[in-house]
Amino acid sequence: MASNKQEVSDKVKVVVRCRPFNQKEKMMCHKQVVMVDEIRGTITVNKLENPHEPPKTFTFDTVFGPDSKQLDVYNLTARPIINSVLEGYNGTIFAYGQTGTGKTFTMEGVRAVPELRGIIPNSFAHVFGHIAKAEGDTRFLVRVSYLEIYNEEVRDLLGKDQMQRLEVKERPDVGVYIKDLSGYVVNNADDMDRIMTMGHKNRSVGATNMNEHSSRSHAIFTITIECSEKGVDGNQHVRMGKLHLVDLAGSERQGKTGATGQRLKEATKINLSLSTLGNVISALVDGKSTHVPYRNSKLTRLLQDSLGGNSKTMMCANIGPADYNYDETISTLRYANRAKNIKNKARINEDPKDALLRQFQKEIEELKKKLEEGEEEVISTSVVLARAS
Ligand SMILES: Nc1ncnc2c1ncn2[C@@H]1O[C@H](COP(=O)(O)OP(=O)(O)O)[C@@H](O)[C@H]1O
Ligand SMILES: [Mg+2]
């Protein structure tokens, strides 16, 4: 139904995923300190150095052990959010955790291997599978954008000029947005995949070490889905859902990596976005704060709606299984534990001011009229409406 204005109070859903031991950890005979109980939804961490200290146990909505399959992670965490976005809600999926714990594996995975695909590529097939099944005169318009925040600067990964830095702006009618960010209209899952590859290539532009770069930058892949349908009032209504898929910078503290100089500056700035994210979460859940510091970093400004606002949000906290990561693992679990208490208010976005579908439909109607009237005009329209058939 297009005329549903219902607001649902949703808590941010928090899940934890523990990756398997890697080759190096096996070789160095690191000990396993993380136990995952998928049935109870608990993560228990032991402190080996101090056997008298009782193990710490944390409970979450869902937890995934080292043998978890990408598709199960998708079905249990992302699928319901993507379904909501197809109905016109906003959605956000985050991966949070120390570098090397599987954030990118969870969000992207290995795109060329179907069973190793992560949340982002699995969502492509899901979105277009849904569109293919839509009936009647329902029309969809899907577009994507892809950006990176590095050193508190926003770069358009799909932009023509990779040297350009973009501004974060705000307008009362559409909220926070990025000026001049490219948006590509896509017609199928392959289009999306190609665009993602294009953005990927740009992620490494200017980076001397791609791993270092990706562990210090935040990447946001956004899919905007507009759907036009006849409502109960007999008129066409547009609903628009925005899905942010976020691969955050590594959450390890700079002390551990021994960063100095330029590297330290980067670490501080990354920590500005990440620590602001932490402060935003604290302010939202402590019940006393009257001020939530969204404006203190680019990341939290862009994701303002995702935390405490109009969005269905899921955070995946990624951790490693081994003893030498004990401190980081506990810190990630504490962070995730706090995030469980954030309350959002998601609603279907009906007839939003920035919908393109209505604008395009108007243009197409006008062009059709002109054609019928026999006007000799060169018709060029850069958009193809994904038609439900
Ligand atoms: N659940 C998992 N199963 C198998 N391999 C994983 C898993 N999670 C991470 N890995 C592997 O561990 C390495 C680090 O993961 P990555 O996603 O790059 O970490 P991050 O993005 O958090 O820095 C990669 O080689 C990745 O393939
Ligand atoms: Mg990564």
Automatic annotation (TrEMBL):
The keyword Nucleotide-binding applies. It is found in: Cytoplasm, Cytoskeleton. GO terms for biological process: mitotic cell cycle; transport along microtubule. One of its GO terms (molecular function) is microtubule motor activity. Residues 11-342 form the Kinesin motor domain. ATP binds at residues 97-104. Keywords: ATP-binding, Coiled coil, Cytoplasm, Cytoskeleton, Microtubule, Motor protein, Nucleotide-binding. It holds the Pfam family Kinesin. GO terms for cellular component: centriole; cilium; cytosol; kinesin II complex; microtubule. Belongs to the TRAFAC class myosin-kinesin ATPase superfamily. Kinesin family. Heterodimer of KIF3A and KIF3B. Interacts with CIMAP3. Interacts with CLN3. Interacts with DCTN1. Interacts with FLCN. Interacts with AP3B1. Microtubule-based anterograde translocator for membranous organelles. Plus end-directed microtubule sliding activity in vitro. Plays a role in primary cilia formation. Plays a role in centriole cohesion and subdistal appendage organization and function. Regulates the formation of the subdistal appendage via recruitment of DCTN1 to the centriole. Also required for ciliary basal feet formation and microtubule anchoring to mother centriole. PANTHER family: CENTROMERE PROTEIN E (PTHR47968), KINESIN-LIKE PROTEIN (PTHR47968:SF63). This is Kinesin-like protein. It comes from Pleuronectes platessa (European plaice).
